[in-house]
Amino acid sequence: PPFARCATVEDAENAVVALERDGAVFLSGVVRAEVCDAVLEELNAVCDAARETVGEALRRTDVKLGFEGATRDMIVGACGSGGVGAVLSRIGDATEEAVMVEMSVLATEKGADRQVLHPDVAYDAPHAPLYSLFIALQDVVPEMGPTCFVLGTQDEASHDAFPATKWGDEQFALLGEKRCCDATLRKGDAVLYDARTFHQGGENAYGRR
Known about the structure:
The chain is of the alpha+beta class. It has helices at 9-22, 33-54, 69-79, 84-88, 156-161, 169-173, and strands at residues 24-27, 60-64, 104-108, 131-135, 148-150, 180-182, 190-194, 199-200.
């Protein structure tokens, strides 16, 4: 369905099981389409201005968001009844003392290269675990180079076995049977993930994502 939040307790509990097992869970309809459109309109204006200043060589733009207007609507909607809060409230590490670390949008342009496979947080980082939420402001098709998550790599064994940089054939062979999942999301869908999970943004051959 075009909009299907965690409608029941069972939905939220199933999401928790997936998050703790795989390090990431895909959620449908976290934010309404019209709210995504409003945020995207503001973002496009910032990205267009950045490209005018820097030039066509600009491939990635990281935009810090303020907690107002359409962005506020997006966050309140995502975390409201049936939203991400329903999942995090069932995670033992996500206590009421948790703080928001960053609120931003990463946009890639056509021609952006594939990232190195990486976690955002070291396994034993003093601020771990850190949970991140990616919300799709548009439909994400394979040609845009969606973020690929390697499920089940948020554990200490994976961090000991896998390099944080310079992945080649030998390193990818270490993944073995672990599943790689591309975040080909629809507008308003999201990925909630443990930031220790290995992932990478793909090569963008389409246009702005």
